[in-house]
Request: fold
Amino acid sequence: MYKLSLITINLNNRIGLEKTIGSIIGQSFKDFEWIVIDGGSSDGSRELIEQYTDHITYWVSEPDKGVYNAMNKGIKVAKGEYINFMNSGDCFASSTILKEVFSSDRSADILYGYMMRDDINGEINNQSMMKPQLSWIDLYNDGMPHQSTFIKRSLFDKFGLYDESLKAVADWKFFVDAMVYHKVSSEFIPKKIAIYASGGVSDTIGWEERKRIEKELFPRAMVEIIPIVEAYGRIQHHKLTRKMYLIVDKLAKRMERRNGQ
Reply:
């Protein structure tokens, strides 16, 4: 079994795909398989993939039903202990970063590190999600960047694949479910892992969809009370625990009764 499965999805982004390919095949770490899921591109992406089949463990180029359908295709054939999604346009921060991450024994369910935006000298993206201890309030406010995250393959067997009815926030939904409700283990790696190519689906439609799914994941009153509690800074530094979730949920229900809802 491989230590890592790298999954790259692509649709008509030949230029971005070429950048990603260079980043992956240039890694000094070699204990990984590489899976490429192309959505039936017509811009020369397929021909580019065919040039690198010696480096690719599995690939397919065919129409799919969206981003998460493509990611799920990759998960289904993945055999690595951990999965990382490095989609077209994204790249690793350096040619040695995978070796640096996996030079030590890692056992946590989710490994995560720094992600930067657009170029190696750019600002760190989602800074609040990149620290040694995450609280559930962090997950409520932000999403885990999949480019700089390594997820144990077994979690998808336990909790299911990404929700294909969603267009932009199924990965956020998965992380909240796994980390808040199932309390999976995580480990922060204080290294620059990946560089994110902005302008994707999550940048354009993610916020509206997220607000809708947020109401499914968190009680409505809880959504209303969190900004109030945050304003007093009383829960910002608590560890990710079910106990703290229940405390705030209790406060929210109290508010509902008081307001006659």
